[in-house]
Amino acid sequence: MAAMYIATPFLGSLTTYKAVETFTSFYYNLIVWNDLRAKELVEEYNESWCLWILNKACKLLYQVTRQKRFLAGSVIKFMNAQVSLRLLWILTHCQPVRDNVSKRNVLFGTLDTWLIYKLTNGAHHITDVSHASSTGLYDPFTLGWAQWALSLFRIPVSILPKVLATWHGREDIRVDSEHLGREIPIRASITDQSASMYGLSCVKKGDIRTLLCPFVSDN
To answer: Which residues form the Carbohydrate kinase FGGY N-terminal domain (predicted)?
Structure first.
């Protein structure tokens, strides 16, 4: 049986994120790296007592529990490269978005979210772990949206896509037949270096060496 795999190499960091009304009317594009509209918010939150308390509390909890989740929390800082504060900027400054959030007419997603939503004719508002982790709103330790971040930034969870495993293998997520002539299951979605790795057939140990920067890797 044919199956479709959504792969977006190197787009986990470069993805144009969407805050849209039922994926038909676009409010704003959120473009990572060069988009500085939330610069003042980033500086404000990084200098806030909330972040200072969060860092210190996590440092203390790490010393007691030795859990890596708290180690990460002890050094967390916000950056313009993260979509979280740009999404907050839109929720704060865009009146149509604010009005429609309360009506549950606003959805947010990454590139794969938009593709799958369109291919399934709006049946599925989902993403995978590799895409979600690039938003700055995902907690890799709990494998879900970070509730502390959603509370801190006042971002409603109702606008976020459901996060599935990269390879979910589900049969009910299918491309509508009107697009390709027949229904085809979408069984996986993957982005960034992981997508590039499989795209280059690097599936065995030693096939690839990846450095810290996503643009510098040896295959």
So the answer is: 26-198
